[in-house]
Amino acid sequence: MFKNLVRSLIIPLVLASSRLFAEIEYEINDIGTLQTHSSQAIALNNNGQILGWYNIDGSSSGKHFFVRERDGGFHEIPSKENGVGNSINWRYLVDGGKAYGTFDGNANLAVLYTWDQYNGVVNLGALPGKEISAINNAGQVLIKSVSENKNGKSIVHPVVWENGKIINLYGLEGDIGVEPEESYGFDMNNNGDVVGQSVVYLSYKNNTYKKIHAVKWINGQAIDFHKKIPKANKTKAIAVNDLGEVLIYAGETREYLPKYLVRSDGGVTVFSYSLN
Questions:
Q1: String of b and e for 18-57 (b: at least 16 CB within 10 Å)?
Q2: Whole-angstrom Cα distance, residue 9 to residue 11?
Q3: 8-state DSSP, 18
Q4: Sign (positive/negative) of CA torsion 80, 135, 260, 215?
Q5: In degrees rounded to 5, what are phi and psi of residue 172?
Q6: Tens digit of each residue's pLDDT, the chain (276 residues)
Q7: pTM for the full model?
Q8: How many CB atoms lie under 10 A from the CB of residue 192?
Q9: Contact assessment for residue 52 and residue 66, using Cβ atoms and an 8 Å cutoff
């Protein structure tokens, strides 16, 4: 949900299909470099709060994180738990003004932290994987993929972490009932719906084929969205909003990937431009 500031700005606009072609005006405010050597915005939430960092002198020790309120109010975020220990990389901001960050210097795990102006820095514990795809307002964390040995076979699949509990999301079985060995979660909305892609095994003329299909997980159940996209050999769902609308890439080449919006009513809107 918060891949970076640019994605945070673009995706909500793309997914608001009911107003997609309406003329929209924006007011642009330059928050400047905060009178420091440099600064950067990392994430933006729906309340106009900005998570970012500034650097006093350009050195590694001069980097400080902050949350800026819509009205210009400014909050410094500690870069370490209780001022000591591991440095925290703050990367996510949800609508309540809560920031999330990780220490991921360990090759095998990431430790999740949260900050808000009332509770300060809180250590939420270790995550089951390092690559976070999204964090929603409920504090659910989508891990893009983890490895698991299941029924004697090594598989890769996304998980949702919530207060130390793990919800495993498994891929599509296809039309022959074979569990896939590979699936990934790319985004999650505030309802806990997850979208991504899954290898799927299909049968045709007594042969088995392996393809990649866009998938949406609702209440942990995988739903194949590939069939909603016409004449596509490969699809992946990259974003989902709180209306349940899903943005899907289709195609095989990086140079041209058609985009489709699957609306909440089941209809499909085609985009002819690129977000790459």
A1: eeeeeeeeeeeeeeeebebeebebbbbbeeebbbbbbbee
A2: 6
A3: G
A4: positive
A5: -85, 135
A6: 444 443 444 444 444 444 444 455 766 666 665 677 888 999 999 999 999 999 888 787 788 999 999 888 899 999 888 777 778 999 999 999 999 999 866 766 789 999 999 999 999 999 999 899 999 999 999 999 999 988 778 899 999 999 999 999 999 987 777 778 899 999 999 999 999 999 998 877 777 788 999 999 999 999 999 989 988 889 999 999 999 999 999 876 555 567 899 998 889 988 754 544
A7: 0.82
A8: 17
A9: yes
Question: Which positions ≥6 away from 31 have C-beta within 8 Å?
Answer: 39, 41, 50, 68
How far apart (Å, rounded) are the C-alpha atoms in residues 174 and 26?
45
The residues near 21 (Cβ < 8 Å, ≥ 6 apart) are none
Please count the other Cβ atoms lying within 10 Å of the Cβ belonging to residue 244. 17
Q: Which of 66, 84, 85, 82 is nearest to 74 (CA)?
A: 66
Side chain identity at residue 216, one-letter code = K
